[in-house]
Amino acid sequence: MIFSTSKKLIENSSSFLEIKYYSFWDRISKKNGVFCGWGRKKSGLKAVFLAKKFKTSFLLLEDGFIRSCGLESALYPSFSIVEDSVGIYYDATHESALERILNSYDFKNDKKLLTQAKEAISFIIEHNISKYNHARNLDENYFPNNGRKRILIIAQTKNDASLKYGFADKFSIHEMIKTAKNENENADIYLKIHPQALKNIKRSDANADEILPYCNLITEDINPISLLKKIDKVYTKTSQMGFEALLLGKECICFGMPFYAGWGVTDDRVKCERRTQKRSVEEIFAAAYILYAKYRDPYGNIPLTLMQAMQNIVYIKNNNLHKKGFFFGFSKWKHNFVKPFFEKEQFAKIFFINPFFQKNHLKTALKNGLDENSLIYVWGKKSFHKIENYAKKHDISIFRVEDGFIRSVELGSDLARPYSLVVDRHGIYFDAARKSELEQILNETDFDEKIIKKAKEIQAFLIKERISKYNAALHESINIKTDKKIIFAVGQVDDDASIIYGSQNMSNLALLKTVREKNPQSYIVYKPHPDVLAKNRMGKISEHEVLQYADKIIKNASLDNLFEICDEVHTITSLVGFEAVLRGKKVVTYGMPFYAGWGLSDDMLANERRKRKLNIYELIAGVLILYPRYISPKNYKLCDIKTFLQEFKEEKIRYNSSRQISKKVLIFFIRKIQFIYRTVRI
């Protein structure tokens, strides 16, 4: 049994070891256990102390030499770990298990091991594999082509344990720069800052006043292997980059005693008498990377070889699977609901950023590892200026997310689970002021026969099954006895984003006034928005005001019932207009909804970006097939629209079959209680 004195250690190493947290109160029963700690940190020192006290063993852990697809501070899971029951590899003041291997292992008679080492080194060089693997490769034109040698001095983080325990804390960066200059006349001197110092996660061991004028500073976060390929010689204290330079055949001068120094392959400015053997770079690599370190897939939790771990890292990087998703403006009740929609992104981790103090969004995101390898998702048109500025500066993509056009059986404002979402890389469909991905699809897609056939099938299914965005309304026939043209005027929510961004804030009352002015002899039917009727959103106007311009108010009928009796649908920007176009009705728009401007509606406003005339099937293909994402109402997995619609139909039938009159009041109050509870938690 292995007992840890650190809960953090358990989180970092749980996929590698079976570890139980140790507490002070149960220490007596742990005399025969192995105490586990992290390197020379407090937990490691405590593990050594307790092992001596109870006359048992300890095990010290550290990250392996090829760790992850990104920085530990950015919460990237680890592919490797080292276990040491003697000391720890970076502590040259004491023997370690790695040191014992290098002093005693018979490498000459293990040809297979050395072959594996050479193959792994070639793979590292070919794919630029390092400890962390988040940084971009060096630009080919980064260094001047002046024919001079390039000397690299590697800065580390201040108070790093390897400096203290590697005999390096007595040397300054100033001294290293000066020595490098004196030993390499007419060479260009460069100083690389540690990536965690670049991100202000830790302080650098290089102070500004130590950097001499002739030293060129590298402050970009560059992949170490790609950088070292362009360097002739390296000066380091104890950095792993020194060993990576050796893998590339570069000369390495050590002002400390890292694990690879003292074996005859480095120019050492300090000595370690315990290291008695002469070893090749391949032998040191085999000892450290293969015999000493362990590898495991942190996602599948299965053991790996070194080569398998590196291949996984390359695959993840090449397919952007190492990225993290940061979600802003998503109310807490949405968190679990929206996750299934992002299954195909295969994020390393998803973070919903909902700080208590609204101004702390960027700070909270950075603390959770927001970096250049992240993607940012924002709900609708919510504004996060600091986040947007950071994204622009670091070339991070921002995606806007909204409910899809066939959302759920019940109302979204009642916090019902959505079955469709749209994710837009350019804008968002209801913001007519700028290009959206939907607009691009409708402008540029070559709709072939296959997708047109599918669109026809979807149109027929939606009409037959009376499916809309929300589907809780009862289908009740409407009797209106009139010879006049019947116009259905669509009520919306006052603060709806499509009103704000697509109509210059036209109100429901203004819509009614305009419709009446333009159609004085028509019979106007007005239906308030269901969210307004449910008292979940703003937009109510009094019956007295409505009836000054409309002939009838209809509250509870379904949209299909209204479509059956009306001749025209007039709307500001409502999705109801799209559903009416889909059913062959004449539609008049007073704003600029996503379905306007394509020649299928009479539009009071124009949009010069929408240059194409579409038929109804092309519109359906773009809006319902290519743009949204759907999940199965049965298992909440991503699915195509035809699977979704069939399962959605069944969901709708189940819901309506349970809506007996005796249950209506109970269902209403349960919904309201849920709404209040979830709203408080938002």
Keyphrases for this structure?
Rossmann fold; 7-stranded mixed β-sheet; 682 residues; 34% helix; elongated; alpha/beta
Strand content: 15-25%
Radius of gyration computed on alpha carbons: 33 Å
Q: Please, how many helices? A: 25
How far the N terminus sits from the C terminus, by CA atoms, comes to 43 Å
Q: Write out the strand line-up for the largest beta sheet, numbering strands in chain order.
A: 2-1-3-4-5-12-13
Total number of beta strands: 26
Mean pLDDT level: 87
CATH architecture of the domain at 442-625: 3-Layer(aba) Sandwich
- Largest β-sheet summary: 7 strands, mixed
Question: For this structure, what is the CATH class of the domain at 442-625?
Answer: Alpha Beta
Structural class: alpha/beta
State the helical fraction: 25-40%
Which regions contain 5 or more consecutive residues with pLDDT less than 50?
23-30, 660-664, 677-682
Shape by Cα distribution: elongated
Oligomer: single chain
